[in-house]
Write a structure and sequence with these properties.
alpha/beta; Rossmann fold; two-stranded parallel ribbon; 7 helices; globular
């Protein structure tokens, strides 16, 4: 399972359902885009360390940005930005899930539901 950025935010806010969602999956992945978004949201180096420690302690694997992911993300942008407002970061996260043949867990259904080849697992906090 690939986890969207919002799932990490819910866990940081002590949402029990989000924590249980993470714990119930033995194989945990995130896009490098999600990793960068989490680091970008940090206020200081201590928060950077906390994020990296959290990812390591729960055994998350950061999936790299590949040529295929970039290509698929650009197709998603062309196909969905005008009609649905898809943003580049979400296109990269969705493309990472599709290219790795994994479902994506997110509470932001409106960001992803239009992508037909994405297996979206909607999280309700």
């Amino acid at each position: 399972m690939i986890f969207d950025t919002d799932i990490f935010i819910w866990v940081q806010r002590a949402n029990i359902k989000a924590a249980e969602l993470v714990k119930k999956h033995d194989e945990r992945y995130l896009s490098v885009q999600t990793f960068m978004e989490l680091l970008q949201g940090a206020q200081n180096k201590n928060q950077h360390k906390y994020i990296k420690d959290f990812i390591a302690s729960f055994g998350f694997v950061v999936l790299p940005f590949t040529e295929n992911i970039g290509h698929r993300a650009s197709i998603y942008i062309e196909e969905y930005t005008l009609s649905s407002g898809l943003r580049a970061g979400d296109a990269i996260i969705a493309a990472t899930a599709v290219e790795n043949n994994m479902p994506l867990a997110s509470s932001n259904a409106k960001h992803f539901r239009m992508i037909k080849d994405l297996e979206l697992k909607i999280f309700k906090p």
